[in-house]
């Protein structure tokens, strides 16, 4: 594959960036379908910035937000995407809502990973340990990972792929998070690769269209 065939992705993240690292590792050693052209970090303290620096990947840090944050955020993201021209934008632990103007401009080109089986245990305030705590409290025996296209509402857009993970009777939010995270590191690169290969797209009416049966759960084992 020549460089020009590569799908350009930009990753948006707010935390430690283990999913960002999983993407880097996958597209360095398993597949060359994707070029990670930049990282947008939502805050200066995000550990993910260190990973970008170490890997020589350009990094833009969202400026401190003012009262009309929606406008400045839209402007900042528009300018960043105009410069980096991504084919796909990947939210990997990104804690901010994508402004509606960006969702519209990049429709079908933004995906998010969530550490539970949506539409359960998602939405505003459902992040990090809160998700796993809510799963355990509910008594659910199965959790998992969802990758979906992004619309204007937290964790609501059309589902691309899901991978189930068992909840054990003695699980704490931390132990469940660790089991789920291992699967996140497999599912996210696999979905990005499928997008890069044109095997999955967001079609008319917000319907996710696969050209193959990869998304079928049959080949997923419960533990990854
Ligand atoms: C992951 O659990 C992801 O699903 C969620 O935020 C967490 C980010 O972890 N949206 P990391 O920063 O990639 O390690």
Describe the protein's architecture and organization:
- The protein has helices at residues 18-29, 48-54, 69-84, 100-105, 129-138, 173-196, and strands at residues 7-13, 34-41, 59-61, 88-91, 110-114, 142-149, 159-166, 200-202, 208-210.
- The protein has 224 residues and is of the alpha/beta class.
- The chain has a domain at 3-113 and 146-163 and 190-214: Formyl transferase, N-terminal domain (Rossmann fold, 3-Layer(aba) Sandwich).
- The strands form two sheets. The protein has a seven-stranded mixed sheet with strand order 3-2-1-4-5-6-7, sandwiched between helices. Strands 8-9 form a two-stranded antiparallel ribbon.
- Helix 5 crosses helix 6 (173-196).
- The longest helix is centred in the last third of the chain and has 24 residues, at 173-196.
- The protein is globular, with a radius of gyration of 17 Å.
- The mean pLDDT is 94.
- Bound molecules: 5-O-phosphono-beta-D-ribofuranosylamine.
- The site of 5-O-phosphono-beta-D-ribofuranosylamine has 13 residues, from helix 1, strand 5 and helix 6.
Main attributes?
224 residues; seven-stranded mixed beta sheet; two-stranded antiparallel ribbon; 6 helices; binds 5-O-phosphono-beta-D-ribofuranosylamine
Q: Uncertain spans, ≥5 residues at pLDDT below 50? A: none
Could you say what the CATH architecture of the domain at 3-113 and 146-163 and 190-214 is?
Answer: 3-Layer(aba) Sandwich
The major beta sheet can be summarized as: 7 strands, mixed
Q: Specify the overall morphology.
A: globular
CATH superfamily of the domain at 3-113 and 146-163 and 190-214: Formyl transferase, N-terminal domain
CATH structural class of the domain at 3-113 and 146-163 and 190-214: Alpha Beta
SS field, number of helical segments: 6
Ligands in the model, by name, code or SMILES, are: 5-O-phosphono-beta-D-ribofuranosylamine
* Class based on secondary structure composition and strand pairing: alpha/beta
């Amino acid at each position: 594959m020549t460089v020009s065939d590569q799908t350009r992705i930009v990753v948006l993240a707010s935390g430690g960036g283990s999913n960002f690292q999983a993407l880097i590792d996958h597209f360095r050693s398993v597949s060359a379908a994707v070029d990670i052209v930049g990282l947008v970090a939502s805050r200066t303290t995000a550990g993910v910035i260190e990973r970008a620096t170490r890997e020589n990947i350009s990094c833009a840090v969202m400026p401190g937000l003012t009262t009309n944050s929606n406008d400045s955020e839209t402007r900042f993201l528009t300018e960043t995407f105009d410069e980096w021209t991504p084919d796909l934008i990947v939210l990997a632990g990104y804690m901010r809502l994508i402004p509606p103007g960006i969702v519209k401009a990049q429709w079908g080109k933004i995906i998010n990973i969530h550490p539970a089986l949506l539409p359960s245990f998602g939405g505003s305030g459902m992040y990090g340990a809160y998700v796993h705590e809510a799963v355990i409290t509910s008594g659910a025996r199965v959790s998992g990972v969802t990758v979906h296209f992004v619309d204007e509402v937290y964790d609501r857009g059309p589902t691309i792929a899901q991978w189930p993970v068992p909840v054990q009777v003695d699980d704490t939010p931390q132990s469940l998070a660790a089991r789920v995270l291992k699967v996140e590191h497999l599912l996210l690169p696999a979905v990005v690769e499928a997008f890069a290969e044109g095997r999955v797209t967001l079609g008319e009416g917000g319907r996710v269209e696969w050209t193959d049966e990869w998304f079928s759960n049959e080949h997923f084992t419960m533990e990854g």
